[in-house]
């Protein structure tokens, strides 16, 4: 093998090993993830409050609180709520289904963010209407960036 | 079986909305990490979390790799009668972790 070919082979190997880097979802992919869960129904802004820090130093664990405006009594309830991170490799982060014993329709957890992006929450009420809200979060070091350097 | 921690108030009045907190120790591998040999660590996550009380569900969460390691949830339960609050976490390979606490309703 000539030196040139050997060098090409090595650079090819390096490129291949880098390939499994997580990509980021486009707006179309995020819209597709939302469509998969909720179909073609209309999204109304409001009734959902997302609390996230405006600036997150690490994307590995970003605290998130979701509050939904609903009395949770009789027939007027929240059925489910989903969280989407628009630029994560996989936009859907979690889906919460509220059961008959759920009290206040509020829910907190920690999520991963791959970088600066919009986080979207969608709540589905018992009358089938969809309500949404989105918050922009600045992420200094994304969840994927840090862990790449582990080895 | 992974370690889990839950926080349920000891007692509540009927009709009260009480805060419940639950955490489980789990790496929630998202499939984008590498081990010391440089090979990809496959996705390994908890897929379902259920909190049940008084014969019905309080909250069910369908987890995705986008949640942080050691997934934590905080939510509210409407107290109706004295009984156990049961927590179940299901791993993708079928491992089930359970935990339970009794809520005294006065």
What does this structure look like?
The complex is a heterodimer of chains A (151) and B (106). Chain A is built from three helices and nine strands, in the order ααβββββββββα. By secondary structure, chain A is an alpha+beta fold. In chain A, strand 8 and strand 9 form a beta hairpin. Chain A is elongated, with a radius of gyration of 20 Å. Chain B has a single domain, classed as Sandwich (Immunoglobulin-like), CATH 2.60.40.10. In chain B, strands 2-8-7-4-5 form a five-stranded mixed beta sheet, with no helix packed on it. A three-stranded antiparallel beta sheet of chain B has the order 1-3-6, with no helix packed on it. In chain B, strand 7 and strand 8 form a beta hairpin. The mean pLDDT of chain B is 93. At the A-B interface, strand 6, strand 7 and helix 3 of A face strand 5 and strand 6 of B. Strand 7 of chain A pairs antiparallel with strand 6 of chain B, so a sheet runs across the interface.
Indicate the low-confidence ranges of chain A by residue numbers: none
Biggest sheet descriptor of chain A:
6 strands, mixed
The chain-level mean pLDDT of chain A equals 86
Using only C-alpha atoms, the radius of gyration of chain B works out to: 16 Å
- Please identify which CATH superfamily of chain B we are dealing with: Immunoglobulins
User: Which structural class should the secondary elements of chain B be placed in?
Assistant: mainly beta
**Form type of chain A:** elongated
| CATH secondary-structure class of chain A | Mainly Beta
N to C succession of SSEs of chain A:
HHEEEEEEEEEH
Low-confidence segments of chain B: none
Q: Quickly count the helices of chain A.
A: 3
CATH architecture annotation of chain A: Sandwich
CATH class of chain B: Mainly Beta
User: In whole angstroms, how far apart are the ends of chain A?
Assistant: 31 Å
Distance N to C terminus of chain B: 34 Å
């Amino acid at each position: 093998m000539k030196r040139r070919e050997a060098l090409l082979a090595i650079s090819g190997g390096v490129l291949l090993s880098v390939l499994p880097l997580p990509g980021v979802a486009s707006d179309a992919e995020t819209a597709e993830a939302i469509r998969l869960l909720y179909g073609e129904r209309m999204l109304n802004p409001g009734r959902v409050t997302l609390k996230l820090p405006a600036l997150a130093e690490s994307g590995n664990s970003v605290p998130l609180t979701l509050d939904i405006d609903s009395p949770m009594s009789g027939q007027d309830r929240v059925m489910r709520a989903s969280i989407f991170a628009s630029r994560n490799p996989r936009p859907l982060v979690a889906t919460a289904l509220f059961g008959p014993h759920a009290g206040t329709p509020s829910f907190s957890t920690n999520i991963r963010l791959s970088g600066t992006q919009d986080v979207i929450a969608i709540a589905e009420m018992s009358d089938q209407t969809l309500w949404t809200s989105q918050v922009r979060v600045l992420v200094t070091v994304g969840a994927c960036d840090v862990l790449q350097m582990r080895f | 079986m992974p370690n889990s921690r839950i926080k349920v108030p000891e007692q509540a009045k009927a009709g009260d909305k009480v805060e419940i907190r639950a955490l489980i120790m789990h790496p929630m591998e998202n499939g984008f990490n590498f081990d010391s040999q440089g090979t990809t660590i496959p996705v390994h996550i908890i897929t379902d979390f259920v909190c049940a009380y008084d014969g019905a569900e309080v909250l069910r969460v369908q987890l995705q790799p986008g949640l942080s390691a050691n997934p934590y949830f905080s939510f509210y339960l409407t107290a109706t009668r004295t009984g156990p609050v049961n927590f179940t976490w299901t791993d993708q390979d079928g491992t089930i972790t359970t935990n339970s606490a009794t809520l005294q309703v006065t």
